[in-house]
Amino acid sequence: MESNLLRVDLTTGEIKNEIIGHDVFERWVGGSGINNWIMWEHFLTHDINCDPRSPDNIFVFGVGPLAGSGAGSGVKGRITFKSPCYDMFGDSAGGGKFPYMIRFTGFEYIAITGRAPKPVYLHICNDEVSLRDASHLWGKDTKDTHAILQKELGDYPSKTHTLSIGQAGENQVGIAGVVSDALRIHARCGGGAVLGSKNLKAIAVQGDGGIKIKRPEGLMKWSDEFRQSLDKNEAVYGFKRRGTLGAVEMYQHIGSHFWRNGQGNMFRGDDITSDNWVKRFHKYSEVCSSDCFIACDAKYKIDGTESEASKEYIGESFRRPEYLTTGSAAGALDVRDWAEVAHWGKLTNDYGIDNQDLSCSISFLMELKQRDLISDDDVANLFGHSQSLEWGNMKDIERLVDDIVFQSNPFGKMFGDGPYKGALRYSEMMGQNFMKYAMYGKGGASFTEEMRPFPTWMNNMAVASRGADHLKGLGLIEKFQRRDLSQIYFGGPEAADLTIPDYKGASTAIIENQVALLNSYGVCMFHWMLDPAGYMPEKYYGEAYRSITGVEHDSDQLMRDGERICNLEKAFNSRVGMRREHDTICERWMWEPTDEGMYPGSVAADMFEPVLDEYYQWRGWDVKSGLQTRAKLEELDLGEVADVLEADGALARG
Amino acid sequence: MSAQPQKELVTGETWYQPGDEIPNVGMKLFALRNQCTECNVCEVACSLVHSPDGEINPQLSRVRIDHAPEKPSKVNQEGLGFVAEICHHCGNPPPCAEVCPTDAFYYDPKTLAAVIDQDNCIQCMECVPGCPFDVVFVAPSGELLKCDLCGGDPVCVKACSTRPEMLNKGKQYNRMPVLFYEEQSEFNRLSREEPVARDEVGIMQAMLEAGKISSGA
């Protein structure tokens, strides 16, 4: 397998094509693995401690070899950069048609550096690549940007698909995302701010080239078997019907939501907790990412009869809310009307901003107000206008979103980098420590779910390479108490037992490797959750990967490849100064017990340290400093990475 | 999925010319409008199966997904959906073959699908506007592409994310599939005796909506 990397220097306008050889795939699998490597090499010649909003930062887009190539497991593109909101490794996945279409242009990887003198967009039409004026797009939201570009560029030689930033990215808001086709957002870590700082409004692609499959018979046989296994899998039908929204009911049952900035773990309100909204939605058609056998997504169009608040949004049409759209609105902000939850999803997508960081920033202030820790005068000072900071008041929440997106007042500027930095800045301004109410892990905003009873999830939040994160080490063995999987992985049921720390750090380490593989394949994680043999992408997708790429790695080698990818992300963070003390979580999770749900009285502190120790041990890293060892890196064929870390004083001693 | 190089399909022993009296069609392939999720699986699978050297390219697919919100159907009145544009296998003779100046269209004796013999085709593109449903496509190379039913085992139907096998599993999931490939032995007789308008909806869907035929899916 070979691929093309498009290098674009926006400062000089220079565009060149580089071949990514088969050897790079042998080592980095594809997708996020190759992205990481491109970024790592970039920061060998550029200052890794640069301001992420400076021209020195790099923005890499990549799509893995299984995406759109008949594997039928969705298409996920990957963006990788140094995060402007967290100042560490940053990456984010997104689906939709853009990563599908870009494969047919011949360029599967794009590396963008420098800064354009004025707003531009990048047009890739097969091998014709140009930078074009984007002054007519500047100031537009992602929906309009996409529509204008589609109209401007037309349907020949193929439909136009776009990756664009909204107003949040233009204003370099740290938590701005990048949106694929105005529908699906690469939300996390602030990729939108990086593109905004580079004056790159959008990337538009059109292509009619093909993807060459190394062994088509192997792929077709695999695909046949894969489909048959899906047909037998009951879990698929629930997924098809409700997508991630299926989690609302189950999480309500076990107490795993994130209510009012984490003060509770169950949703309130009859409308939110009922299943009716999904039923009401389902009269509308499903929509789908590309090349996916499941099609879990759906569209909605509000006709005003759905709920009290729906009268406000008659005619609005967008994708059905995902679980985290719901978790951030109905959970963190306590919005109790489904039409408002849906509107929240559309609003954040149009502006191109991450709804997790956004909701945790807003809910932090709401809690301060609820507890009378700040006065009306303090609020007026912060906003420059009156602001109720009332839970669930959608009109007020919309104004708060505008404040952040348009950076129009001290609140917007202070919380543009998410709740952790926001809370630090606000505490400093007020001369009072409010960090107790900030919800974060490793500097990243909380994922809006309850964590405390689940030691693997707590560990995920503390160690993930891009800050608090559920998509790097997804602790499903434990949350769903899958003894069968624990048996497969560790030869015993311990990993599924919530009451003991055993194998919790180990689960994180192994699943991080697997997730790194999935992200490098370029497929969606949902298929992995439906794997009947247990979540094993090295086995499940192994044959598809080999047939498509001709990289003949067996399951063990693929797992080692996944581990190598994780180690490079870790090395990046070690180079920017992150050590064991950064692998931590916020005070509420650590010390404040849950008081509702299936597991009342849980605090993370009970098991946090032993689980973290075990994670480092399974990783082969130094337990005391959290740094990587030369022995482990050399075992993974990363000797040159160890040399760089040693020169930076970021390698474990001894 | 079975790889079926197109060449095999166009070298059958007995070929029916357009206008010949042909036996009744047993199996019919058709797509319901606005039921499609735009997952593109059919395009990917179709192009791979028809590619001699293992290439995936939606522009080489014989089925294309179109966004047509302006074409609501009785099945989906909201009209928010996508449309799988694929040959409706019009019956005898098909309009695409009627306009062909070199008689490059033949019937595959096994499936009775009209297929294009690429050796006889001069790429004049008369069949593109000649098709009432815009489902004869042009590849980037100029080659004309039309559904050939994969020799009787259409891969798009097997791969579709709303394929019948995945649907209607109790209360969990209940909806209409997009692509049908099923026994419709009365189609030719009915379409001759009681013709319905060849409008945008398509013959099969029109007949289904008019209650002239029924579908098990």
Please give a structural write-up.
The complex is a heterodimer of chains A (about 650) and B (about 220). In chain A, strands 2-1-6-3-4-5 form a 6-stranded mixed beta sheet, sandwiched between helices. A 6-stranded mixed beta sheet of chain A has the order 8-7-12-9-10-11. In chain A, strands 14-15-16 form a 3-stranded antiparallel beta sheet, with helices on one face. Chain A is of the alpha+beta class and about 650 residues long. Chain A is globular and about 65 Å long. The relative contact order of chain A is 0.12. Chain A folds into 3 domains: about 5-205, Aldehyde ferredoxin oxidoreductase, N-terminal domain (Aldehyde Ferredoxin Oxidoreductase,  A, domain 1, 4-Layer Sandwich); about 235-440, Aldehyde Ferredoxin Oxidoreductase Protein, subunit A, domain 2; about 450-645, Orthogonal Bundle (Aldehyde Ferredoxin Oxidoreductase Protein, subunit A, domain 3). Chain A is built from 30 helices and 18 strands. By secondary structure, chain B is of the alpha+beta class. Chain B has one domain: Alpha-Beta Plaits, CATH 3.30.70. Helix content of chain B is about 20%, strand content about 15%. Chain B has helices at about 5-10, 40-50, 95-100, 125-130, 155-160, 185-195, 205-210, and strands spanning about 25-30, 55, 65, 80-85, 105, 115, 135-140, 145, 180-185. Chain B has a two-stranded antiparallel ribbon. A two-stranded antiparallel sheet of chain B has the order 3-4. The two termini of chain B are about 20 Å apart. Residues about 1-10 of chain B have low confidence and may be disordered. Classes of the chains: A alpha+beta (about 650), B alpha+beta (about 220). The interface of A and B includes residues 104, 157, 216, 283 and 289 of A. β13 of chain A pairs antiparallel with β2 of chain B, so a sheet runs across the interface.
